[in-house]
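Session log. Operator J.P. requested a structure for one protein chain; no other inputs attached. Running the standard single-chain path with C-alpha coordinate output.
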Amino acid sequence: MKKHMLPLYSAAALLLASTLAVAQPADLVRKAQAGDAQAQLDLGQMYVEGRGVAQNDEKAAQWFGLAAAQGNALSQSNLGLMYDQGRGVAKNDVEAVKWYRLSAAQGEANGQFNLGVMYEDGRGVEQSDQEAIKWYRLAAAQNLLDAQYNLGLMYVSGRGVEQSDKEAAKWFGITAAKGHDSGQVNLAVMYATGRGVPLNEKEAARLLGLAAEQGNATAQVNLGTMFEEGRGVKRSLSQAYFWYALAAAQDLEDTESLRDEAAQKLKPAERAALDKKISAWKPKTTNR
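Structure written below.
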Protein backbone atom coordinates (compact mmCIF):
# COMPACT_ATOMS: atom_id res chain seq x y z
CA MET A 1 0.00 0.00 0.00
CA LYS A 2 1.30 3.40 -0.90
CA LYS A 3 0.07 5.96 1.56
CA HIS A 4 -0.29 6.75 5.25
CA MET A 5 0.51 3.33 6.63
CA LEU A 6 0.03 4.20 10.30
CA PRO A 7 -1.75 7.55 10.66
CA LEU A 8 -1.37 9.09 14.09
CA TYR A 9 -4.48 10.08 15.94
CA SER A 10 -4.15 11.78 19.28
CA ALA A 11 -6.82 14.41 19.69
CA ALA A 12 -8.96 15.42 22.62
CA ALA A 13 -12.24 13.59 22.96
CA LEU A 14 -15.42 15.07 21.59
CA LEU A 15 -17.82 16.90 23.85
CA LEU A 16 -20.30 14.32 25.03
CA ALA A 17 -23.41 14.86 27.10
CA SER A 18 -24.23 12.05 29.52
CA THR A 19 -27.85 12.20 28.43
CA LEU A 20 -29.45 13.95 25.50
CA ALA A 21 -31.58 16.87 26.55
CA VAL A 22 -35.23 16.19 25.80
CA ALA A 23 -36.77 19.18 27.54
CA GLN A 24 -37.47 22.44 25.76
CA PRO A 25 -34.70 25.05 26.11
CA ALA A 26 -36.90 27.22 28.35
CA ASP A 27 -37.46 24.30 30.73
CA LEU A 28 -33.75 23.53 30.82
CA VAL A 29 -32.92 27.17 31.47
CA ARG A 30 -35.26 27.24 34.46
CA LYS A 31 -33.70 24.09 35.89
CA ALA A 32 -30.19 25.26 35.12
CA GLN A 33 -30.78 28.64 36.73
CA ALA A 34 -32.12 26.83 39.79
CA GLY A 35 -28.77 25.04 40.09
CA ASP A 36 -29.54 21.67 38.47
CA ALA A 37 -26.10 20.48 37.34
CA GLN A 38 -27.48 17.99 34.82
CA ALA A 39 -29.60 20.71 33.23
CA GLN A 40 -26.56 22.98 33.13
CA LEU A 41 -24.57 20.25 31.38
CA ASP A 42 -27.35 19.55 28.88
CA LEU A 43 -27.85 23.24 28.18
CA GLY A 44 -24.14 23.69 27.62
CA GLN A 45 -24.17 20.80 25.20
CA MET A 46 -27.10 22.31 23.31
CA TYR A 47 -25.18 25.56 22.90
CA VAL A 48 -22.10 23.68 21.69
CA GLU A 49 -24.12 21.86 19.05
CA GLY A 50 -26.61 24.61 18.23
CA ARG A 51 -29.40 22.15 18.97
CA GLY A 52 -32.63 23.92 19.89
CA VAL A 53 -30.71 27.17 20.46
CA ALA A 54 -28.35 29.34 18.44
CA GLN A 55 -24.84 27.88 18.60
CA ASN A 56 -22.80 29.82 21.15
CA ASP A 57 -19.51 28.58 22.61
CA GLU A 58 -19.37 31.33 25.23
CA LYS A 59 -22.73 30.34 26.70
CA ALA A 60 -21.75 26.69 26.48
CA ALA A 61 -18.60 27.36 28.48
CA GLN A 62 -20.57 29.35 31.06
CA TRP A 63 -23.05 26.52 31.65
CA PHE A 64 -20.33 23.87 31.71
CA GLY A 65 -18.49 26.04 34.22
CA LEU A 66 -21.47 26.23 36.56
CA ALA A 67 -21.99 22.47 36.46
CA ALA A 68 -18.26 21.81 36.76
CA ALA A 69 -18.09 23.98 39.88
CA GLN A 70 -20.70 21.67 41.42
CA GLY A 71 -18.48 18.68 40.73
CA ASN A 72 -20.22 17.34 37.62
CA ALA A 73 -17.47 15.17 36.11
CA LEU A 74 -18.52 15.32 32.47
CA SER A 75 -18.98 19.09 32.64
CA GLN A 76 -15.46 19.32 34.06
CA SER A 77 -14.13 17.38 31.08
CA ASN A 78 -16.14 19.50 28.66
CA LEU A 79 -14.99 22.73 30.28
CA GLY A 80 -11.42 21.47 30.05
CA LEU A 81 -11.92 20.87 26.34
CA MET A 82 -13.25 24.40 25.87
CA TYR A 83 -10.03 25.72 27.43
CA ASP A 84 -8.02 23.19 25.43
CA GLN A 85 -9.47 24.41 22.14
CA GLY A 86 -10.08 28.04 23.07
CA ARG A 87 -13.80 27.76 22.45
CA GLY A 88 -15.85 30.34 24.32
CA VAL A 89 -12.89 31.04 26.60
CA ALA A 90 -9.27 32.04 26.09
CA LYS A 91 -7.15 29.01 25.21
CA ASN A 92 -5.31 27.87 28.34
CA ASP A 93 -3.63 24.47 28.51
CA VAL A 94 -2.96 24.70 32.24
CA GLU A 95 -6.61 25.45 32.95
CA ALA A 96 -7.63 22.62 30.63
CA VAL A 97 -5.43 20.19 32.56
CA LYS A 98 -6.91 21.39 35.84
CA TRP A 99 -10.45 20.51 34.76
CA TYR A 100 -9.47 17.29 33.01
CA ARG A 101 -7.73 16.15 36.18
CA LEU A 102 -10.75 16.91 38.37
CA SER A 103 -12.94 14.97 35.94
CA ALA A 104 -10.47 12.10 35.65
CA ALA A 105 -10.19 11.80 39.43
CA GLN A 106 -13.92 11.08 39.52
CA GLY A 107 -13.51 8.27 37.00
CA GLU A 108 -14.92 10.11 33.98
CA ALA A 109 -13.50 8.35 30.90
CA ASN A 110 -13.45 11.47 28.71
CA GLY A 111 -11.52 13.38 31.36
CA GLN A 112 -9.08 10.51 31.73
CA PHE A 113 -8.50 10.30 28.00
CA ASN A 114 -8.11 14.03 27.55
CA LEU A 115 -5.65 14.19 30.45
CA GLY A 116 -3.70 11.39 28.79
CA VAL A 117 -3.53 13.40 25.57
CA MET A 118 -2.15 16.40 27.46
CA TYR A 119 0.57 14.23 29.00
CA GLU A 120 1.40 12.67 25.64
CA ASP A 121 1.66 16.09 23.99
CA GLY A 122 3.25 17.86 26.97
CA ARG A 123 0.66 20.61 26.99
CA GLY A 124 -0.13 22.18 30.36
CA VAL A 125 1.95 19.50 32.07
CA GLU A 126 5.44 18.07 31.77
CA GLN A 127 5.45 15.56 28.91
CA SER A 128 5.20 11.97 30.14
CA ASP A 129 4.40 8.94 28.01
CA GLN A 130 4.05 6.86 31.19
CA GLU A 131 1.36 9.18 32.55
CA ALA A 132 -0.36 9.20 29.17
CA ILE A 133 -0.45 5.40 29.18
CA LYS A 134 -1.83 5.39 32.73
CA TRP A 135 -4.80 7.58 31.81
CA TYR A 136 -5.41 5.91 28.47
CA ARG A 137 -5.61 2.54 30.23
CA LEU A 138 -8.16 3.83 32.73
CA ALA A 139 -10.32 5.28 29.96
CA ALA A 140 -9.85 2.19 27.78
CA ALA A 141 -11.07 0.01 30.66
CA GLN A 142 -14.32 1.97 30.38
CA ASN A 143 -14.48 1.13 26.67
CA LEU A 144 -13.67 4.62 25.39
CA LEU A 145 -12.72 3.89 21.79
CA ASP A 146 -10.28 6.74 21.30
CA ALA A 147 -8.37 5.68 24.41
CA GLN A 148 -8.21 2.10 23.17
CA TYR A 149 -7.01 3.35 19.80
CA ASN A 150 -4.32 5.56 21.33
CA LEU A 151 -3.06 2.58 23.33
CA GLY A 152 -2.59 0.81 20.02
CA LEU A 153 -0.54 3.73 18.75
CA MET A 154 1.61 3.75 21.88
CA TYR A 155 2.37 0.05 21.45
CA VAL A 156 3.22 0.54 17.77
CA SER A 157 5.75 3.23 18.60
CA GLY A 158 6.88 1.84 21.97
CA ARG A 159 6.07 5.07 23.77
CA GLY A 160 5.60 4.55 27.51
CA VAL A 161 5.43 0.78 26.98
CA GLU A 162 7.58 -1.94 25.50
CA GLN A 163 7.03 -1.92 21.73
CA SER A 164 4.66 -4.71 20.73
CA ASP A 165 2.96 -5.13 17.37
CA LYS A 166 0.84 -7.90 18.86
CA GLU A 167 -0.54 -5.60 21.57
CA ALA A 168 -1.03 -2.83 19.03
CA ALA A 169 -3.03 -5.16 16.79
CA LYS A 170 -5.11 -6.23 19.80
CA TRP A 171 -6.15 -2.68 20.60
CA PHE A 172 -6.70 -1.73 16.98
CA GLY A 173 -8.83 -4.87 16.66
CA ILE A 174 -10.99 -3.89 19.62
CA THR A 175 -11.70 -0.48 18.10
CA ALA A 176 -12.08 -1.79 14.57
CA ALA A 177 -14.78 -4.23 15.68
CA LYS A 178 -16.73 -1.27 17.08
CA GLY A 179 -16.55 0.75 13.88
CA HIS A 180 -13.59 3.03 14.66
CA ASP A 181 -12.40 3.93 11.16
CA SER A 182 -8.81 4.77 12.13
CA GLY A 183 -8.63 1.51 14.08
CA GLN A 184 -9.83 -0.32 10.98
CA VAL A 185 -7.16 1.37 8.85
CA ASN A 186 -4.33 0.56 11.24
CA LEU A 187 -5.46 -3.03 11.74
CA ALA A 188 -5.61 -3.35 7.96
CA VAL A 189 -2.01 -2.15 7.80
CA MET A 190 -1.04 -4.80 10.34
CA TYR A 191 -2.68 -7.52 8.23
CA ALA A 192 -1.22 -6.17 4.99
CA THR A 193 2.30 -6.25 6.42
CA GLY A 194 2.00 -9.20 8.81
CA ARG A 195 2.84 -7.09 11.86
CA GLY A 196 1.42 -8.55 15.06
CA VAL A 197 -0.99 -10.73 13.09
CA PRO A 198 -0.62 -13.28 10.29
CA LEU A 199 -0.24 -11.74 6.83
CA ASN A 200 -3.72 -11.59 5.30
CA GLU A 201 -4.31 -9.18 2.42
CA LYS A 202 -7.94 -10.23 2.04
CA GLU A 203 -8.64 -9.18 5.63
CA ALA A 204 -6.67 -5.99 5.07
CA ALA A 205 -8.85 -5.11 2.09
CA ARG A 206 -12.02 -5.91 4.02
CA LEU A 207 -11.05 -3.60 6.86
CA LEU A 208 -10.02 -0.84 4.48
CA GLY A 209 -13.41 -1.18 2.82
CA LEU A 210 -15.20 -0.67 6.13
CA ALA A 211 -13.21 2.47 6.89
CA ALA A 212 -13.42 3.77 3.33
CA GLU A 213 -17.21 3.49 3.39
CA GLN A 214 -17.16 5.77 6.44
CA GLY A 215 -15.29 8.39 4.44
CA ASN A 216 -11.78 7.80 5.79
CA ALA A 217 -9.53 9.21 3.07
CA THR A 218 -6.49 7.18 4.14
CA ALA A 219 -8.53 4.01 3.83
CA GLN A 220 -9.88 5.11 0.46
CA VAL A 221 -6.47 5.66 -1.12
CA ASN A 222 -5.08 2.43 0.32
CA LEU A 223 -8.14 0.50 -0.85
CA GLY A 224 -7.65 2.03 -4.28
CA THR A 225 -4.10 0.70 -4.26
CA MET A 226 -5.32 -2.77 -3.29
CA PHE A 227 -7.71 -2.75 -6.25
CA GLU A 228 -5.07 -1.39 -8.63
CA GLU A 229 -2.58 -4.08 -7.64
CA GLY A 230 -5.09 -6.90 -7.07
CA ARG A 231 -4.00 -7.44 -3.48
CA GLY A 232 -6.66 -9.10 -1.34
CA VAL A 233 -9.28 -8.26 -3.96
CA LYS A 234 -9.82 -8.89 -7.65
CA ARG A 235 -7.86 -6.34 -9.67
CA SER A 236 -10.12 -3.53 -10.84
CA LEU A 237 -8.96 -0.23 -12.31
CA SER A 238 -12.49 1.14 -12.11
CA GLN A 239 -12.63 0.48 -8.37
CA ALA A 240 -9.13 1.89 -7.96
CA TYR A 241 -10.20 5.09 -9.73
CA PHE A 242 -13.39 5.28 -7.67
CA TRP A 243 -11.58 5.19 -4.34
CA TYR A 244 -8.70 7.38 -5.46
CA ALA A 245 -11.19 10.00 -6.62
CA LEU A 246 -13.02 10.00 -3.30
CA ALA A 247 -9.74 10.41 -1.41
CA ALA A 248 -8.65 13.18 -3.77
CA ALA A 249 -11.93 15.00 -3.13
CA GLN A 250 -10.78 15.28 0.49
CA ASP A 251 -7.46 16.79 -0.63
CA LEU A 252 -5.38 13.91 0.70
CA GLU A 253 -1.77 14.44 -0.35
CA ASP A 254 -0.67 12.83 -3.64
CA THR A 255 -4.07 11.29 -4.39
CA GLU A 256 -4.85 13.51 -7.38
CA SER A 257 -1.96 12.00 -9.33
CA LEU A 258 -3.10 8.47 -8.46
CA ARG A 259 -6.63 9.33 -9.56
CA ASP A 260 -5.45 10.89 -12.81
CA GLU A 261 -3.15 7.97 -13.65
CA ALA A 262 -6.01 5.53 -13.14
CA ALA A 263 -8.37 7.72 -15.17
CA GLN A 264 -6.08 7.55 -18.20
CA LYS A 265 -6.49 3.77 -18.27
CA LEU A 266 -10.30 3.91 -18.36
CA LYS A 267 -12.59 4.32 -21.35
CA PRO A 268 -14.36 7.71 -21.40
CA ALA A 269 -17.81 6.17 -20.96
CA GLU A 270 -16.67 4.08 -18.00
CA ARG A 271 -15.06 7.08 -16.36
CA ALA A 272 -18.18 9.19 -16.88
CA ALA A 273 -20.33 6.54 -15.21
CA LEU A 274 -17.92 6.34 -12.29
CA ASP A 275 -17.82 10.13 -11.93
CA LYS A 276 -21.60 10.10 -11.63
CA LYS A 277 -21.39 7.51 -8.83
CA ILE A 278 -18.65 9.48 -7.13
CA SER A 279 -20.74 12.66 -7.17
CA ALA A 280 -23.66 10.85 -5.55
CA TRP A 281 -21.60 8.93 -2.99
CA LYS A 282 -22.15 9.56 0.71
CA PRO A 283 -20.27 8.03 3.66
CA LYS A 284 -21.95 5.53 5.91
CA THR A 285 -22.46 6.46 9.53
CA THR A 286 -21.77 4.26 12.54
CA ASN A 287 -23.23 4.18 16.02
CA ARG A 288 -19.89 4.58 17.80
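Operator note: Residues 250 and 259 are 12 Å apart (CA to CA).
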